[in-house]
Amino acid sequence: MGYYVLSYVCMAMFVLASVRLVYRQWTLPLHVRWEIYPVRHETTARVAYGGSYMEEINWWSRKRESSLVNELKYMVPEILFLRGLWKANRGLWLASFPFHFGLYLMIATFGGLTLHAALSLWGAPVSAGGGLLRSLLDGFVVAAGWLGLVLGSLGGLALMTKRLLDREWRDYSSPADFFNLGFVLAFFLSALAAALVVDPWFTGAKGFVCGLLAGGDAPPRTALGALTIVLGSLLVAWIPLTHMSHMFMKYFLYHQVKWDEAPNRRGGRIEAAVRKNLDLKPTWQAAHVRADGCTSWKDIASSTPGETK
Amino acid sequence: MKAARRPSDLAARSERLCHIEPGDMVPLPPPYEDFNRVTLPLLKPERVKGIETSLDDTVAIGIPRPASREEEDLLVRKFLSGLKKLFEKKNNWTFLQPLLLSMEHCARCQTCADACPVYEMSGRQEIYRPIFRSEVLRRIYRKYVKPGGRIAAKWNGDIDLNWTTVARLAELSYRCTLCRRCASVCPIGVDNGLITHEIRKLFSQEMGIAPKELHEKGTVQHLRVGSSTGMNPLAAKDNVEFIQEEMEEIAGFKVEIPWDREGADILLIHNAGEMLAWPENVGAFAILFQAAGLSWTLSSEAVGYDAVNYGLWYDDVQFSRVAVKHADIARRLNVRKIVMGECGHAHKALTVTADRLLTGDLNVPRESAMVTLADIVSSGRLSLNPRRNPFPVTLHDPCNMVRSMGIVEPQRRILRAVAPRFREMTPHGVDNYCCGGGSGFAIMSGYNFADWRNLVSSRRKFLQILDAFADEPPEAPKYVCAPCSNCKGAIRDMIGYYHGEERSGLYYGGLVELIVNAMSDMKKPIIQFDGKSSWES
Ligand code: SF4
Ligand code: SF4
Q1: Which of B71, B65, B69, B70 is nearest to B52 (CA)?
Q2: N or C: which end of chain A has fewer CB atoms below 10 A?
Q3: What is the mean pLDDT of residues B121-128?
Q4: How far, rounded to the nearest angstrom, does the alpha carbon of residue A259 sit from its chain's CA centroid?
Q5: What are the start-end ranges of the E strands in B374-419?
Q6: Distance from C-alpha of A12 to C-alpha of B75, rounded to nearest angstrom
């Protein structure tokens, strides 16, 4: 039962920590524009060289065109295959891609196991006529699981070697960085060992996930299985507390900064947010600012600087 | 002298943290090998007496050394109070979200390092690595601002905070041109240029520490006198009158430069430096706008005739004051749009960054001159003879116009129409390299900073320019087109420093000059190479 409780608690922590991170982003004040081109939802003609809608004469009088397809064409290879890294740092890509793809495949494997468990528990009529579906799912779990574990372990080992041996990396790595990478690597290695030694067809994993869904209490049957469950659960809780949350926080870095080029139109949503910001009262101390905690940004921006010394 | 290896070394007291030896920097090709033995001239002891010089071989700000331990501690406390404010909504709504995201998600993968021209050209001096200064700020923030930071410091990456750390960090924030090339390659989207910008802001807005060229002689003078050049409205009008006469000589017809015309379609704002250093640029705009039949005006109100906004580089408050003034002048003149002259940072400041500052009728539409000019050229309203520009031309892309604004193609459309021997630099467009004068460096020359700029931050651009003209004979005149006053300043200085005119026939100028030079109805060429007509070159 303890293993299940640990997994439930860790998953709850993941959800809470992630919601907190995301909520914090949504509630931050609207910032000034600071985009970098190419902005990937630009039109096909412009995205090819990094142009913007501001290249049009009287751009404000035209309908702003943007393309979700272009954005997806960039995002999907970026998320799945780390395309940016492939272009800018091929050597690192060789280690980073298997590591990240291994993690994605772990998530996919867990998804497959969850679907399998749901079908087993509540899908009797479906599965009765769904032998093929069941076989496909079994095959998917085993293939994704093995591939993910091998790629993740190799990538993790390569990254750890680089962090330990490459001076450029080592000098900028804190004990926390080594711990975080070591943690993920330990999970991959223990899960790989479990698959190799005791659970090559992921039968034990299926049983555990079934138990997770049904509130079961069957403990893992092997020490390696138990270790993998403990490490996997703790890792899930740990990721959003570290910089590894870039896995999903990258959304905000891209969509709310790098590609946020939405213009401020009179009477629009952006203008309303700007007006709110301009009512804030700063407390910067330099004499030229003339902030006293009572004067708003709006008033300060319309004033002349105070003494400079 | 101990070379810095790690961010924590910034705190260790020493005479100098980084020193560039001759031969450290990326070598220059013939005929510039003699510069490979050159390094920065030593700072003169009498000039830097009492000034913080412990970072490297140059000085950008010139921070007075505190007189006592108590004074040092007070300044460190001020620094910390400023640092806290960077993470507060009321103090830093302008950049809070981008800053938080960049502070929290760097994976220290070093992908950005190879993209940085300063780091690369310096011979990979550790302190110029893009994440060096970010990591210093991150560690100080985590240790001294976040709850429980001191206990967790050994775990998260430690650093000591003392006056040495603070003073060196201030100087170090002026060894990055804010070109954001590093940010464009970061797989996560972290922006080290932005972190540098925030460090500068903390020092300016909390401690009143900024290079005098940007602050006292920059934004303060701009707001008080009317222009960061020191020109008051009367002097600006006088200069333009002189330019008008010069242009009539070149054009062979009457050229009008209208002032303060209410209800005109366009308010054109130049970088006022053009009026003094490159008057032909201001004149060429007038010739073109007149020939195209545009309804336009200049403003003679203080601030309104100088498009610069140095606040963009170091201080949000000063930035806001200048931007509001520009917009308010346009509002009162009741123009349809503001057209930004050839000045990259002014483009970005008023068009992009100030877009979320200007509300209601202050939100006057803003357009890049590249766009207005491309429209004029493609409309057929000018009679152009591109054979009048027979010399090779390459284009420098100002970072603020290209990477930060996506204005890439209009200037190329123009060049394809007026400069038959136009060739690109490698790389170009949004992947361009900074001229080395970005973020204020072009106008900063105190102590030996201009030498640092020419040798280190402009070196990559100089190599690119040489490369673009590698197939041309050295004596043939070549034109580097830089549609930005600050870039032009940096390019002028690098050509002068390396004797590029004598050794490689390098000349430089803006874009409008090339268009006017190709106009069939001009009496004389507006572009001259060493006093000789460019039409026959
Ligand atoms: S800023 Fe980006 S590219 Fe540079 S080390 Fe951090 S994550 Fe890597
Ligand atoms: S902004 Fe430019 S100069 Fe500054 S660290 Fe990044 S690449 Fe280097």
Answers
A1: B65
A2: C
A3: 96
A4: 17
A5: 393-395
A6: 44
**CA of B37: how far to CAs of A241, B28, B33, B57, B456, in Å?**
50, 10, 8, 16, 13
Name A256's Cβ contacts closer than 8 Å, sequence gap at least 6: A25, B97, B101
* Cβ atoms within 10 Å, residue A1: 11
The residues with which B384 forms a beta bridge, in sequence order, are B519
Q: How many pairs of residues across A and B have Cβ atoms under 8 Å apart?
A: 273
Other CB atoms within 10 A of residue B300 CB: 17
**Helices vs. strands in chain B: H and E counts, helices first:** 24, 10
Rounded distance, CA B500 to CA B482, Å?
Answer: 16
- In 3-state terms, what secondary structure has residue B151? helix
Q: Which of B315, B60, B324, B320 is nearest to B208 (CA)?
A: B315
Name the residue with tokens 């979320």.
Answer: B356
> Dihedrals φ, ψ of B64, to 5°?
-65, 140
HEC string for A263-299: CCCCCCHHHHHHHHHHCCCCCCCCCCCCCCCCCCHHH
Contacts (Cβ under 8 Å, ≥6 apart) of B88: B96
Which residues share a beta bridge with B298?
B259
Query: How far is it, in rounded angstroms, from Cα A105 to Cα A228?
Result: 16
Q: What is the mean pLDDT of each run of 10 residues along chain A (309 residues)?
A: 90 96 96 98 97 98 94 95 94 96 97 92 61 88 97 98 94 95 97 95 92 82 93 96 91 96 96 98 97 95 74
Sorting pLDDT into bands at 50, 70 and 90, what band is B2?
Answer: very low
Indicate the burial class of B453 (C-beta count within 10 angstroms; 0-12, 13-18, 19 or more). Answer: buried
Which distant-in-sequence residues (6+ apart) come within 8 Å of A20 by Cβ? none
Integer Cα distance of B312 and B51 in angstroms: 26
pLDDT tens figures, B313-364: 999 999 999 999 999 999 999 999 999 999 999 999 999 999 999 999 999 9
Distance from the B406 Cα atom to the nearest Cα atom in chain A, whole angstroms: 4
Q: Is the peptide bond before B117 cis (omega within 30 degrees of 0)?
A: no
Using a 6 Å cutoff on CB, does residue B116 contact ligand 1? no
Q: Which of residues 359-418 of B touch A (CB under 8 A)?
A: 359-360, 363, 365, 367-368, 370-372, 374-375, 402-410
Question: Which chain A residues in 85-114 lie under 8 Å from chain B, judged by CB atoms?
Answer: 85, 87-89, 92, 96
Contact list in A for residue B186 (CB cut-off 8 A) is 84
Mean pLDDT of B117-133: 97
- Residue B141, classified by CB atoms within 10 Å of its CB into exposed (0-12), middle (13-18) or buried (19+), is middle
Q: Are A249 and A18 in contact (CB under 8 A)?
A: no
